[in-house]
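Internal QA ticket QA-208
Title: Verify multi-chain structure generation after dependency bump
Assignee: T.L.

Test input:
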Amino acid sequence: MSRPELQAPPEIYYGDTEAKKYTQNTRNQQIQANMTYRVLELLNLPPDEPAFLLDIGCGSGLSGEILDEEGYIWTGVDIAPSMLEVALEREVEGDLFLQDIGQGFGFRPGSFDGAISISVLQWLLNAETSHPTSSPPHRLNRFFTTLHSALRNPSRAVFQFYPSSDDQIQLITSTAQKAGFGGGIVVDYPNSKKAKKVFLCLFVGGGGTQQQVPTGLQGEEEDDSRVRFERRRDRERGKTKKGKRKSVKDRDWILKKKELYRKRGKEDVPLDSKYTGRRRKAVF
Amino acid sequence: MVRLITHNLLACHVKGCNTNNFPLEFRDVQIELREAEFNPEFLKGFMPKIEWKALVDAARQLGDTSLPLEQPEMLDDDFLKNLHHVLLEIHVEEGIMTCPNCKHDYPVLNGIPNMLLAEHEIG
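Actual output:
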């Protein structure tokens, strides 16, 4: 199936049924939770200071719940009313806003100590109408400039998102830089197809010293998503040194079969010999 | 669930509406009181961000007069408790917020303010 952001705008795609499905799916909850923890790690807030955060595209509050647990006070914005309704039902602590982030924020300068966003930015990359204000560069620009002013100096904003091409990453990072942000892209598990995650890590102000872009996690993640015996199946299907597949009906297999027939009492089972399972000479 | 903590940060974001666009005025509001965990550290950290006059005005409009007109220098426990109540426990459930400058109405439904703009209002 194609990506959700190509099917319909977010407020329509996440209708009542999809919003429920999205929130109740335990696998989805797990993924969202892991990403939220990672984003908080990248946000690198000073410990023991209860911060005031902005959750961009908070949806049904899956990430907000974790912010609650971690003791942050937060405010969430989302464009899908159905998702916000689910969030209300789940009684998250933060304030919720129905807002299109592509239209920009109206928060006073320096309002937030940081911003997080899980799986949202890719939704800004599609134009819904031909009006100039709904072109992706314009929306991104409006989003990043108003976000930049709403954040405290110094602070960070970390976005996890699913880019579908390098051009999209290029567009997003260049727009963010024009809006005054520093920072860049962090990729976790770049060599893994499934565990790979892209984060946009943006800084407001340097605070005198240049902030370093954190490094992504390397190596293979121990993966819970694989079926447990898949590895053994791979090995058993093993290939010979030449790279050809091993024949299934080899000598062992024939001997096993003959043994089985004898046990079952079948007559005329040929005797085993050193010639068993050998190829005949080519006669012609 | 508009609490005064977010109301105190919220300005109008309509195109060209850059001056006198804060604070949004409440109209026809219904409020609900819900208890929240008292966190003095957070309040102390948040104090510098508060626009005091706007907060006191909004609180009085919603019927809470526990805060002094002038921002006090000393932060004692009673004051922090009052501040906590005003900032985090008063929820506006229904109503309308109006921009004092361009008169744009942001309706609050079910505790969620609708901040969406029409095409011609997008900056």
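Spot checks passed. Chain B touches chain A at residues 1-3, 5-6, 9-13, 21-22, 36, 39, 41-42, 45-46, 49, 51, 88, 110-117, 119, 122-123 (CB under 8 Å).
Status: verified.
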